Amino acid sequence: xxGVAQSPRYKIIEKRQSVAFWCNxxxxxxxxxxxxxxxxxxxxxxxxxxxxxxxxxxxxPKDRFSAERLKxxxxxxxxxxxxxxxxxxxxxxxxxxxxxxxxxxxxHFGNGTRLTVT
Amino acid sequence: SQELEQSPQSLIVQEGKNLTINCTSSxxxxxxxxxKQKYGEGLIFLMMLQKGGEEKSHEKITAKxxxxxxxxxxxxxxxxxSHAGIYLCSGGTSYGKLTFGQGTILTVHx
Lengths: 118, 110
What we know:
The structure holds 2 protein chains of 2 kinds. Chain A has strands at residues 5-7, 10-13, 19-24, 31-37, 44-50, 53-56, 65-68, 75-79, 88-95, 108-109, 113-117.
């Protein structure tokens, strides 16, 4: 099966600019995740979708970050305006699990988008 | 909130040596995953553990989950340079919260 697709692979922007990332999960995967991974740290969950509904966005900085998953398939994550501390790798992952609290399937990750804010 | 602590933070071994990475949770885990990450790339799934006392092996890598489901270990036998990378554990609670450890950087010298 095709893996999780993410684009772009790299992005360099100046602070206060906006940026958008795109993710296409594995076909048939109900759950989609966006993670932020700062260098030297483990991934931090930003938002979790179940089909096209949000089930967890408690760690999403909603004043500048937004995400949507239209039609329950692909998703976009946007940052506006960007800050220096947003420099990180943004990882998208998907899973077959259809509800929170089910741990029957692993997450499948894309290669991520490396964002540098100058 | 649930936290996962990994140890050691980094590990340098000579090729052929055995090694163990630990992952400890402050709460009971209902799913525990191990991933490997190459620098600048996504995470690759290694193994999943769900039951207390469960142990799984794939090639030279063995993962275990203790009976209390709060601690897991990843053991590599006869390490090779191809094993080098960042190893991350990820665990889920009954509330559906899935978090990651901070990762263990493994370097294997030929």
